[in-house]
Amino acid sequence: MPQKIVVVGGGIIGVSTAYFLSRHPANPSVTLIEASSIACGASGKAGGLLALDWHGVETASLARLSYNLHASLADQHNGRERWGYRELNTLEVSCEEVSQANQNKSSNIPSWLRGHAIRKVRNIGSPKTTAQVHPRLFCEAMVQESKNLKIIRGYVTKILGSAENPSTGVEVETDGVISVLEAEVVVVAAGPWTTKLLPSIPVSSQRAHSITIGTTNPVSPYALFTSIKMRSGNVVTPEIYPRQHEIYACGDIDKLVPLPKLAKDVQVDQERCKEIVKNISALSELLEQGEVTAMQAPEQSLEDPKTPGAVMEDSQNVAGDPVEE
Ligand SMILES: Cc1cc2nc3c(=O)[nH]c(=O)nc-3n(C[C@H](O)[C@H](O)[C@H](O)COP(=O)(O)OP(=O)(O)OC[C@H]3O[C@@H](n4cnc5c(N)ncnc54)[C@H](O)[C@@H]3O)c2cc1C
């Protein structure tokens, strides 16, 4: 077991790797280097939905392992309170912006949705197969629960080493000063920035906007993959995840802006965020009247589908039994 390990990137992959390495019985020295702040990219601004069996064969066993690890980490570290871990139903919901026809009062529909807007509901996940976390709180807790983890706020400019001597450390820029940190092993978990350090890794990036709306009372646990036909005729497909004190929703992805050097500098287009609020307001009075508490837009990595072993998943293709017409 190597004794000196550096992890580059404080997103969910980096902090989880650091957590498990720092608790390994061989007691290695683990240093996490993050250029902005913990979970400042996609890992802090994602939906936080976990699914047991939504993966293709290549990654199905990893998905099961990850799903079960989330449950055991929540038990071990009080994740239900600390990062909002909970099992939930996941529905695919087709709706129309406003119509009083077809009053849909099924008990399968969360009480905070406008029943008359709903056209079709399919159950695509149960509390046995889908769960959620607040992703930023989860990442922060992983750092807190790591043992003797050293954290450096700095930008890794280079991975050091050669073909004969693969990894000897990293070059880090902190406040304009470059220094070298030696390591036997370097784990690169830099999300869409990975390719800046390891150009042979075929990862590109895409931006996705999301918003949160504050709630005073707890909202029933249903994750929603929606398809909303707006009065304009446009069909929009926001995903909605209610949490302990807020409801999170994310909209479409785009590639309109270049990837900035730092995760904290990804441009947020307020108009796109307002569009998400408008779209989800069609579904629910609670969402229409709630206060918007965040407008954000992380970049996430996009794996080249031609990469051997890469599986592009479309979660909306997951077949579930129709429960309501
Ligand atoms: C809107 C949206 C919703 C999503 N919803 C879900 C969901 O519900 N469920 C799900 O499972 N997934 C979801 N995802 C995907 C998920 O967020 C990502 O797969 C995951 O966060 C990737 O984590 P990461 O650690 O690889 O990368 P990131 O979160 O991007 O972290 C990389 C980190 O590395 C740091 N870094 C980069 N370069 C350097 C450098 N040179 N030196 C130092 N630090 C560096 C960055 O600052 C950043 O903090 C969603 C993504 C988006 C955009």
UniProtKB/TrEMBL annotation:
Domain (FAD dependent oxidoreductase) ranges: 4-284
A biological-process GO annotation: retrograde transport, endosome to Golgi
Cited InterPro entries: FAD-dep_OxRdtase, FAD/NAD-bd_sf
Pfam family, one: DAO
UniProt-annotated stretches for the region Disordered: 292-325
Signal peptide: none
UniProt xrefs under PANTHER family: OXIDOREDUCTASE TDA3-RELATED, SARCOSINE DEHYDROGENASE-RELATED
Record-given protein name: FAD dependent oxidoreductase domain-containing protein
Organism, scientific name: Drechslerella dactyloides (Nematode-trapping fungus)
Taxon lineage: Eukaryota, Fungi, Dikarya, Ascomycota, Pezizomycotina
